[in-house]
Amino acid sequence: MQIVRQLKNNLMEVIFILPLLIFVGLLNIYPIIVGVNSGFLLLGQYSLYNYQQLQTYTPSLQTVTFNTFLYVPFALAIEFFLALFTALLLNRSIRGRSAFRSIVMLPYGVATVVSAIAFSFIFTATNGYANEFLTGIGLSSHQIDWTLGNYAFVSVALADSWKTFPLIMLILLGGLQMIPESQYEAAAMDGATPLQQFRRITMPNLYPFIMIAMIIRAVSEFNILSLPLILVGSNLQFLGTFSFNLYETFSLGSANMSAAAATVLLAIVLMFVVIYVYVSGKLGDVNR
């Protein structure tokens, strides 16, 4: 009854927000429900057959899940250090800071497909820019195939980090600008070195922002699809590309297996969403 009373008291707000709820429901929630349901279907009957088949499919669900969990922290580490270095630089009063900030944000505005194609020229196995650079400075004497094995992880992580680190940088820069300057002045008066100030003041104050930035990016990294498909093809598969490739085969039952793989990915992403909501709530409590 309390819900009904609240709806009546806020009837105008409900009327305005209803079209948005219908839009989100039809374009997001309904397809998710259909996909999860399809993952459990076999000839019209509910079964775990599709999930069992994923264990024997080549590559197996365990393999692509391992690839995903191996790739995500690797890519996040690269993005974090790039973002932290850039945020610390932009937080200082240097000439041309506004122009530099705009330049740094440019990669985030580049379409994923465009950045993947650009990096495919860099990581081409034969006479690619990366191979030419490594050969020129004497670090490699042969052509590296950046689409195979561990090199594929490196090429995908570098390409994705270049495009997405500006988002983390903005979050960290916002956190840096919220740290009171008086804390640094007091530390300097007590004889603290810049490194000690960084360890004792900057990092503890940035921790909530780092957590939120990493969780947001982790959700996106688990959903990575178009960039590895273009850059390394099927040589290295993650949960997203695995699900897409299963659906793309259009063989008997592959669509249902694809839905099952996507459901596994959804469960992992929802876990990070729950963590994000929890951390955001904690940060809100701290700021009150």
List the helices and strands and how they pair.
Layout: H1 2-9, H2 11-39, E1 41-42, E2 45-46, H3 49-56, H4 61-90, H5 97-109, H6 112-122, H7 129-136, H8 149-177, H9 181-189, H10 194-222, H11 226-231, H12 239-249, H13 254-287
Antiparallel strand pairs: 1-2
Helix content: over 70%
- Order of H and E elements: HHEEHHHHHHHHHHH
Tell me the strand percentage band. under 5%
- Mean pLDDT across all amino acids: 84
Number of strands: 2
Structural class: mainly alpha
Roughly how many Å apart are the termini? 32 Å
Instruction: Specify Rg, calculated over alpha carbons.
Output: 23 Å
Give a written overview of the molecule.
With 288 residues, the protein is mostly helical. Helices cover 78% and strands 1% of the residues. α3 packs across α13, α4 packs parallel to α8 and α10 packs antiparallel against α13. The longest helix is centred in the C-terminal third of the chain and has 34 residues. It is flat, with a radius of gyration of 23 Å. The two termini are 32 Å apart.
Structure keywords:
single chain; 288 residues; mainly alpha; 1% strand
At a glance:
The chain has 288 residues and is mainly α. It has helices spanning 2-9, 11-39, 49-56, 61-90, 97-109, 112-122, 129-136, 149-177, 181-189, 194-222, 226-231, 239-249, 254-287, and strands at 41-42, 45-46.
